[in-house]
């Protein structure tokens, strides 16, 4: 259903819309200027380190979810210490990792070194 | 009544069609008409009032107008990716509604991993954003697509960790189970019972989730992937005609999906007095929608470097603290 609805809309639109090909109509939009170059270039992804961190934390959330589901039962069955402490240790390791990345400047917008006087973006 | 897999499949198809149609109607009303009226109210204008009562017929007029526009394919676009991106975005948001309990039995599927499924499906839209941004061969689109990634990276984890703190209370990922767990009375004030909705049980998580959700659906103060005053239309700059409709629609369905998730895991789902469940569910979803539109009109945009700082140094730390504190409190009181 999620794919069928967009496809139906595209088909319906194809039936009623006009097609008037014209010179210059297909130029990419660059605020009215004649476009220069294309976008298939090497681009400085300034949050590269953050993206790497994301992978770590995303896997962490996947590992936390099963624990949250059984947590209440585990506390009644095995007591607070055995249910909580291992996960505190696990999250603790991640927090230490985050603090380390923070101190080393990984969690920030990396500024380009080539452009003087540049602020952000 | 006949049964068997063929009948079940047919029934599921009809049910999902009904829900999808109702949903698209709601999105059309809120997206085309409601948004303009709300924004107009914030900026002291009247907005649409010519077509039909309160200008409501603008919905039909706009839909026909946009669908009958010429589809301009810009030079140098990466063709399959450029075509698939709007379908991916709209489809992923619609899929999320499959596991949302809307009350009065309107609930297509109730898998055991409901909550995880919703987040997984909603995240697919990020792939669509990157595809749209990169394949458009437009500088604004490229910037918008990359910004969308940065934003989703920064706010996905606080969002999911905050939801995990709710799961600690409920003890299940099943959506109906989470709603049931909120049905008990928390305490009574002057004879009126306050239900134990997780927004009341854990208001801190609720606020955190609302903020992260704003970033997830890309509304102010976190609307940098589009940022109309900076990068034109962001990743959707080059889309026209029906593709633009799909991009626009998918954004609004996403806001509603966010509202539906918040209503389900924090506001007791379809629970409420007097009115039937579906009405309460739509009211709660509408309230979240109103909040996003309010933020859109009233809150300034943050810069992208600020966004990463807020996400990674503020909200991630807060969400981990929230999770640990919730676990400790639940562990002691259980």
Automatic annotation (TrEMBL), chain B:
Keyword Transmembrane helix appears in the UniProt entry: yes
Keywords: Membrane, Transmembrane, Transmembrane helix
Membrane-protein topology: Multi-pass membrane protein
Any single Gene Ontology cellular-component annotation: membrane
Transmembrane residue ranges: 6-33, 54-72, 84-103, 115-134, 154-173, 185-212, 242-267, 312-332
This protein's record includes keyword Mitochondrion: no
Subcellular location: Membrane
Major localization class: membrane
UniProt xrefs under HAMAP family: NDH1_NuoH
Protein name per its UniProtKB record: NADH-quinone oxidoreductase subunit H
